[in-house]
Amino acid sequence: MIEIRALHKYFDDVHVLRGIDLDVNKGEVLSIIGASGSGKSTLLYCINALEGIDEGRITVDGVEVHAKSTDINKLRQKLGMVFQQWNSFPHLTALENVALSPRIVRKMSRSDARELAARRLEHIGLGDKLNSYPNALSGGQQQRLAIARALAMEPSYMLFDETTSALDPELVGEVLDAMRLLAEEGMTMICVTHEMGFARDVSDRVAYIHDGTIEEIGTPEQIFGNPESERTSRFLANVR
Amino acid sequence: MESTSIFFTSFKTTDLWFLAEAAYRTLLISGISISLGTALGLIFGWLLHEGRLISTFILSPFLDIFRSVPLIIQLVLAYNFAPIIGLNIDPFGSGAIVLTIYTTALVANVVRGGIDAVGIPMRRAARSLGMTYWQDMIYVVSPIGIRAVFPAWVGVALGVMKDSALVSVLGYVELLRASQILITRTQEPFLILALAGAFYFALSFPIARFSERLEKRWSQ
User: pTM score, two decimals?
Assistant: First the structure.
C-alpha cells in the first residue's frame, strides 16, 4: 500500500504540490489526470524519490520513502516505472536491456537473468526482437521494452508517467494494450495519463489533479459521468 | 674542401634507426601522457560534471589555463621553473608532466561532455530500476557517454602525440629533434622531414583506423 500524507513540493519558488493526501491499495489501478503542469508527474517522481519532497510523508508498504535511513535503491525495486521517453539503453539489445538490472541489482546469474528477460519480452509480444538494438525498434516497441524492463525487477507497484504521450498515434494502442494486460493480471498501477478512454475503462479510481491538489477522486463512473467539481467537468469537457 | 666533409655527411641507413629510435621516444612520452592524462581527465571530468563549488570556482578556471596557454610556453616555463623550487627534472620528465596536465585539461572537458550527453531522463530510468549511483555510472553512463565522445577523445590523443614535438625545445630527442639533428648534418631537409612525417603518420594511422572500426561497430 502506498500512503501519501500532506505532501508539499517546491521547485525553487513554485509550489508544485500543495498538500496531497492519497492512498493506493494493493491491486488497484489509479489513473491521475489533469492539465500539463498541474504536478501529476512530479507526484509520481516523489513516490520513488526521483524527486525529493519538502513537507509531508510517503510510505510504501510501511517504509518511509524519503527517510534518510531508507535504502532507496532497494525500495525502488518494488516500484517499477515507465517514462514518457522510453529511455532504452541504446548500447544493449532488447534482451540485455531487460536482463541488466536483474543481473546487477538482483544479483541473478547471467543465464537466469537472460532467461527471465526473454520470458518478459515474449509475454509483452517482443519475442522476435530479443537481439534487436533499440534503434531498430519502433517507439511503441521501445515503450513495451521499457515496461518489460521494469517488470523484470518483479515490482509490487508500477508507475506510468504519460507513457503514450511521445508516441505516434498509431503506436499508442499496443502500449495501452500492454498496460491493460498488466492491469488484468492484478498489478497495482498508478498511471499519469492523457488517455481518457484508458482511464475510464481500466482504472478502479481516477484522480483529477488541479494546481497541485487533488481536486476530485472517485470511480471512473463518478469522475467521467457525474463529477462533483465544476473544475473537473470543465477539464473533461476540454479534453474530449 | 676537406673540413666540410666532417660536418656534412650524407644520409645513411643507420640514420633510419636513429629516427626510429626517436619515434619510439615520441611514442613513449605521448603514450605516458595520454594514459595518465586520460585517467586524471576521467576523475576531473566527473568532478566538472558533478558541478560542486570546488569545480566551478577552482578546477574549471585551473583547467582553462592549461587549455588556453600555448603548450610551448607551458613547457619552457615548467622546465625553467623546476630548478627554482629545487627540483631537478630532466627534459623527459618536465615534458611528460606538462603534456600530462595538458591532456588532463582537454580530456576532462571531453569526459564532462560525455556524461552530460547521457541526459537526466536516461539516468532516472536507470535509477528507477534500483541501480545505485555507481551502477548507473558503470553500466549506463559510461558506455553511452564513451560512444558519444570517443571521436573527440581520439582527436585529443592524436593532437597530443603531434604536440609532443614541442618537447624538442627542452632538448628531449624525440622525432622532431632527431630530424633537426639529421638535417644539420646532412643538409637534406626535404628527405628527412618527409621521413619524420612518415613516422608520425605511422604512429597515428593505426589509432585512427582502430577508432574508425570501433565507431562503425558501435553504430550498428
Answer: 0.88
